[in-house]
Amino acid sequence: MCGIIGYTGARATLPLLLEGLARLEYRGYDSAGVALLPGRGGDGILATRQVMMAPATIVVRKAAGRLDRLQQLLRKHPPEQDLNGFTGSGVIFTTGIGHTRWATHGPPTDSNAHPHLDCRRRVAVVHNGIIENTLSLREELLSRGHRFTSETDTEVIAHLLEEALATGQGMYCAWLQVVARLKGAFALAALTADAPGSIWLARFSSPLVVGRGADGWLVASDIPALLPYTREVYVLQDREAAELLPDQARFFSFNGESLTKVPQTVAWELEQAEKGGFPDFMLKEIHEEPAVVRRLLTRYYPATGDGPDLGLPWGDGWWAQRRKLWIVASGTAAHAGLMAKYWLERVAGLPVEFDVASEFRTREPLLSQRDLALVISQSGETADTLAGLRLCRARGVPTLGIVNVPTSSIARESAAVLLTEAGPEIAVASTKAYVAQLVVLALLALRVAQARARHAAGVAAEAGGTPVVLPEDSGTWRQQLERGLTVLPTAIEELLGRQVVIDPRIVEKLASSEHVFYIGRGLDYAAAVEAALKLKEITYIHAEAYAAGELKHGPLALIGPGTPVVGILTQDELISRTLANLHEVKARHGWVVGVGPQHAVASDEAAFLDAYIQIPPLPGPARPVLAAPALQLLAYMVARARGTDVDRPRNLAKSVTVE
Ligand code: F6R
């Protein structure tokens, strides 16, 4: 949701800003813009406050819609036009900030696009997040004669800066004075014509990373935008600010204390953030799943025969004393958590309470310090999930973050972290990160089961303690899940390597339907919920998931002739029951599809299915992980058939950093 990019250095900044904005496209946006300041570059002489060859005029271009609209505008009105006829040699724009906006205050129009300027056009600001006290600030500024040109919350920041600078103080003091007045969430970048060459940054609750390039300094709201230029990143934390100059960066807190920051090295490769011959990121990311699972097994599952080694700080006794596990996450990450609930309860005998983060943070959960909160997030920045994590920490509940972005807030603020190692996920619809979350959660369930079983055996031997009671079949589940995980990469490869993974009739049928239902029981219900989300978000077809047994309690009324219902059939002990529910659909002339291993449809009992998506053989508890790539591909192919923008679905953003 919204993207910030900025550069100051010896290079022409505009191409760099446009490339950065294109790399941030996956965050979702509905308008874009840039603000540029001229300097002297090209010959290696940096643009500085002293060496100014052109009038310090801030040039702004912004346009509603996709980036190509901004590019058209820049071709029609090149920034040089605004330099009052100045065409001196060596003058290029060497300092700039850019932004892709996702509308919150005011519709996506040219004037609401960022950057926003003050009345004198001496200050330009871009902003991710939401300023909550914008109304009172705006009224205050209006009463003092400021003129607003947009409906955004961001514009107040430019006018506040204008006032602070008018008192004669420098930008450093003005910047601190202004950020102290803001309430809400913000990542900010600003520049001023009074001090060309500098970019000013501030962060509270919205991510911002700084990188040192070969010939200047960069800032972005996400690491992939920096990958072409640097792997060394400085992550701004809450209440931290910075000034970027062409040849240095200085960091300071909102209180004005100077900070020494150490760069972190990002292990991600540039190729991971490119399409690599695939038509879109989503398909590429689905095809990366076998490699992602292999990477996770190498990291967390050594071949010592001792089970997973997650490097967590808690011993057997600690796990045995846990009263309850809370799972807190949003969207797809929450669906991974729902799947984990079944594993953790069945394999480790630990009660799990599952909540989507937006509900968890507002419902006064009955937390205890003997619980553990599992906080799952690809981006590590989702506002509701982060708030859930902070709530747990405030109540003294130990926290474990399962996160893909190692530099993120959730990774930083969780007491312990397991990284999902999926590399940058660019497509808005989460695929490889979901599979990675499932694998990490399954390994965690195995580790917890092992700890609790060992502790139970020890306590029984000593007698007198409180023994942990594991479900009767937990041993069988544990073995099967463990075996399933080790062959999972090959099984996904086999699935994706098939000539026809998804029967084209299914694609055709779903693509021409208005409503699609997914059903399943147990682990298959968790898989169904995620499959329905994937279909709805990229195809815009209304897709709903139900626990198969719930159908006859209402949803069956929605089934008419030809309504497609996809039944997930990976759990041997539940197949007959779910098939019976699909039969009820068929009796109402619905169109029924099964998803599962070959043996699930081997008997006559399944002969009534209209179509089937077969997954390769794998031990039962791990099968729903293998159903994921099949169901992701199904959604992908239906989206392609309907001609939607697979990587950038309408109205959605990759990283939801506002409540
Ligand atoms: C759907 C999807 C979203 C995210 C959700 C949480 O494909 O990607 O539902 O899963 O916004 O995001 P993270 O995992 O970054 O916290």
List keywords for this structure.
3 domains, binds fructose -6-phosphate, 8-stranded antiparallel β-sheet, Rossmann fold, 18 helices, Glutamine Phosphoribosylpyrophosphate, subunit 1, domain 1, alpha/beta, 25 strands
Task: Please outline the helices and strands.
Blueprint: E1 3-9, H1 13-23, E2 31-40, E3 59-64, H2 67-76, E4 91-101, E5 116-117, E6 123-131, H3 134-143, H4 155-166, H5 171-179, E7 184-192, E8 199-204, E9 209-213, E10 216-220, E11 232-235, E12 240-245, E13 248-253, E14 258-259, E15 264-265, H6 281-287, H7 289-300, H8 316-321, E16 325-329, H9 331-348, E17 352-356, H10 357-360, E18 372-377, H11 383-394, E19 399-403, H12 409-413, E20 416-419, H13 432-462, H14 474-497, H15 504-511, E21 515-520, H16 523-539, E22 542-547, E23 564-568, H17 575-587, E24 591-597, E25 611-615, H18 623-642
The protein binds fructose -6-phosphate.
Fructose -6-phosphate binds at residues 330-333, 377-379, 382, 385, 429-430, 533, 537, 655-656.
What is shown here, in short?
By secondary structure, this protein is an alpha/beta fold.
